[in-house]
Amino acid sequence: MRLGLALGYWGRGPSADHVTLAREAERLGYDSVWTAESWGSDAFTPLTWIAAQTSRIKLGTAVAQMAARSPTTTAMHALTLDHLSGGRMLLGLGLSGPQVVEGWYGRPFPASPLTATREYVDVVRQVLRRAAPVALDGRFHPLPYPGPDGTGLGKALKPITHPLRADLPILLGAEGPKNVAQTTRIADGWLPLYWSPTRPQVYEASLAGLPQGFLVAPMARVKVCDDVAEGLLPVKVMLGFYIGGMGHAARNFHADLMARMGYEEEARRIQRLFLEGRREEAVLAVPDAFADEISLVGPRERIAERLELWRKGPVTDLLALAPDPHTLRVLADLNA
């Protein structure tokens, strides 16, 4: 199982320690470093900054939001950074949800998310292969644009720049069972939002017949500390926000996933409290057991014991949300 460093997205401003952490991760032999975006900092610019100050570590987006860019634009970002970094790019994509897609990006959330994702990946792969002008008779991402409000003058084009790698890896952040199953067919890897090594049955059917070399790369908060409850608090804050605030009461993919993982009653309570403005109560309502099983938190010996569970499943890459160099070093040592 390889290790990656997950840096997420910025909060109120740039994180001063991200480059330092990325360079330390590279020194320790971590395989990859990952950035994200929501509705603030973007995923590609910080990754480019890190690329310029590292030499070996792979560079991933976990995730870049599909609604933020047309698929050809995303492919341009990926092929550009792949060239600049000497072939280190890993393109992780996610669809997000209706609240972000429509509220922030001003686009309709696709009526068929699976079809929209499949078309998006198809276009990105066409750009990277550069075998022919990019064209797709698609429902959501048709090229050239055929709409009645167009000029009709659109022309199928190849990228001017020759991509460094036609097989640049594409990973998808998928949550629903059908979406995960499709990911195993159209992508090179999967970026689970929550992964519990004690509940393999949650994704067992969707992951049946994984292709050889397919990446399974979940994120997990990792923190070496004496007080487990204190170490889990940032996990509970994250879960409270995602389950309560990242979606509508009637449509929240994160809450639905928590429910499928055996915590339906708790997920609905967190949602209700958060939407009522009782955010601190929503965080406290996150079960310690759920936060713990998707994390690696506690003294070194406890993390070492629980790390064995992660190695036994299909996980190929553990992307550690590890905010301090000491934790990075302990995890590298335990995984050696």
TrEMBL record:
It comes from the Bacteria. SUPFAM superfamilies: Bacterial luciferase-like. Pfam families: Bac_luciferase (PF00296). Keywords: Oxidoreductase. The lineage of its organism: Bacteria, Bacillati, Actinomycetota, Actinomycetes, Kitasatosporales. The keyword Oxidoreductase applies. This is LLM class F420-dependent oxidoreductase. It comes from Streptomyces yaanensis. NCBIfam families: F420_Rv3520c (TIGR03559). Residues 15-315 form the Luciferase-like domain.
